[in-house]
Amino acid sequence: MAPERVGAEPAACSRHRTVQTYLRCSRCGTPICPRCLVHTAVGARCPSCGSERQVRPAVGFVRLMGATGAGLGIGMLAGMALAIIPFGGLAIIPLLLTGLLVGEAMSAAARRRGSWLLALLAFACTVIGPILGRGLLVILLSPGVDVAVRAAVAVEVALRSFGLLGIVLLLGAGVLASTRVQNR
Ligand SMILES: [Zn+2]
Ligand SMILES: [Zn+2]
User: I need a surface site. Which of 27, 35, 106, 153 has the fewest CB within 10 A?
Assistant: First the structure.
């Protein structure tokens, strides 16, 4: 329990004018009496400050890694699927959908606790995931060649298969994904 803020002089409670009190709201400093104070994790508060939504703790490291794994996995699968099914200029729809999916999955994995770091990771997963997925596809579809050589060629081939428009769309999908992981 955080210590309650106490005024040096007694003051009339802001809601009960006849009651003198030493207690102050830990946020706005308004005099509060025992009848109207609201206990919160950060101390006693006046009814208006106490009813505001509590600040939730940040997402833990393990959960953040889980969310990243989920986002990257979905991004890679989407990249593979989009390589098999040619969408052409219509790729904007499945790519934006990928961004939405990645964002939603990561938000759910992080129990809807958004942060700037999660938003950044969602952006990265949406942009890098499909490229990695397509690179993996290149590796799988070119057997016989040395793995190290294939891996090196794969990313380049994957990047080229998306093209400039595809990369721009991926960046857009990434921004969309990052907006899906906000606190709510
Ligand atoms: Zn207050
Ligand atoms: Zn009062």
Answer: 35
Q: Give the ligand whose atoms come closest to the C-alpha of residue 47.
A: 1
Rounded to whole angstroms, the Cα distance separating 42 from 57 reads: 13
Q: From the CA of 11, which ligand is nearest?
A: 2
The environment of the single-atom ion ligand 1, i.e. residues with CB closer than 5 A, is: 25, 27-28, 30, 46, 49
Q: Which residues of the chain register pLDDT less than 50?
A: 1-2
CA distance 97 to 102: 9
Find the 30 Cα to ligand 1 centroid distance in Å. 6
CA-CA distance, 121 to 106, in Å (whole number)? Answer: 9
Cα distances from 123 to residues 44, 57, 81, 163, 173, in angstroms, run 39, 22, 19, 19, 8
- pLDDT at site 2: 47
| This model's pTM is above 0.90 | no
pLDDT given for residue 101 in this prediction: 94
CA–centroid distance, residue 72 to ligand 2 (Å): 53
Across 138-177, b (16+ Cβ under 10 Å) vs e yields bbeeeeeeeeeebeeebbebbeebbeeebeebbebbbbbb
